[in-house]
């Protein structure tokens, strides 16, 4: 057996249960790791063989559902996307995501984060199309070129994992600030040629606790696991709002039936 | 394997919000975060300097003696060091501030595209990082020059 096969690390896990008034503390567990072991694998090992009560949230195990976000060795990361071998440390510290209310152990409450997202009206709004459609025959399609799609595609890859929200220094001090995720979604729709509701979203974010509180610390883009680059979306959006850069979007035409 | 430490409960822990503690450690997130931190610190320092400066110059209303004794304060070693810090912070704040005016209007950040693994964000590019490095370098040069003038002959 090679040395690598016997490698073990110490997993230091933040523990508390706010429903029971438990005072926060850290528990240490020794876990065997291979080159490909992720932090989530290690936590599941702990749950299977050491302490089944460790509270974690996860689902897809492949950086798609966005539920396993936590602070790993000081930085917000997805547990299923962080290999222990890449951390280059014999102690792995797992803590709940900063800037989120804590529920139990590594599980935090996403209600406020989701409500910021919802406030941005994250769906296509277009005067030509009603939002209430009962009959499937009334569903419509828009025409878009590849270039049209490239303008917003990266922002639509967001899995709402909250890592950016957790790394943002403005969110750390201002709960009313929508945060990088919600603001980059505002840009995602602003850049989408199917959407024509620019004014509504501008009114939502152009306020005291809104977009102008972002001063480009860039930390959101550093931690984003999906390449969304929220800092880019936010600065581009500011440029559009100030009228300093143009949004070259041409509103899409509706694809008509006889064209199909 | 057991409990290793107990944390004192405080309001921020349950809400999870980092508060100003979130600003204190700028080293975890790259140069842009360092720039954000320095821009704030230098801004606060310059604000304190500005208030002190208004107080200092207003001493002239109390006559030439009051003005001269105020000026003597800046001729001490501590006064010189303070002035060198003013030179450094104002240079950094100005140069980095000019970079941020462009950045925050969406200039020099690259374009959105199709992200590919390992997902290097285009907004954290070398144009931005060089802007921060240039601001730091100019601040150091200005402080060095200021130091030479203040501590040099006749300083
Ligand atoms: S922008 Fe990135 S880090 Fe933020 S919620 Fe979306 S996927 Fe997660
Ligand atoms: S478990 Fe789904 S993102 Fe990690």
Name a few traits of the molecule.
heterodimer; A: 260 residues; alpha+beta; Ubiquitin-like (UB roll); Fumarate Reductase Iron-sulfur Protein, Chain B, domain 2; 2 domains; five-stranded mixed beta sheet; two-stranded antiparallel sheet; 9 strands; 31% helix; 15% strand; B: 155 residues; mainly alpha; 3 helical TM bundles of succinate and fumarate reductases; 6 helices; 3% strand; disordered N terminus; binds iron/sulfur cluster; binds FE2/S2 (inorganic) cluster
Topology:
The complex is a heterodimer of chains A (260) and B (155).
Chain A (H helix, E strand, L loop, with lengths): L7 E8 L9 E8 L6 H11 L19 E4 L2 E4 L5 H4 L3 E5 L6 E3 L2 E2 L2 H9 L21 E2 L3 H5 L2 H4 L6 H5 L1 H5 L5 H12 L7 H8 L13 H5 L6 H13 L11 E2 L5
Parallel strand pairs in A: 1-5
Antiparallel strand pairs in A: 1-2, 3-4, 3-5, 6-7, 8-9
Helix pairs in contact in A: 3-8, 8-9, 8-11
Chain B lengths: L2 E4 L4 H5 L5 H4 L6 H28 L5 H10 L3 H27 L22 H26 L4
The structure holds iron/sulfur cluster and FE2/S2 (inorganic) cluster.
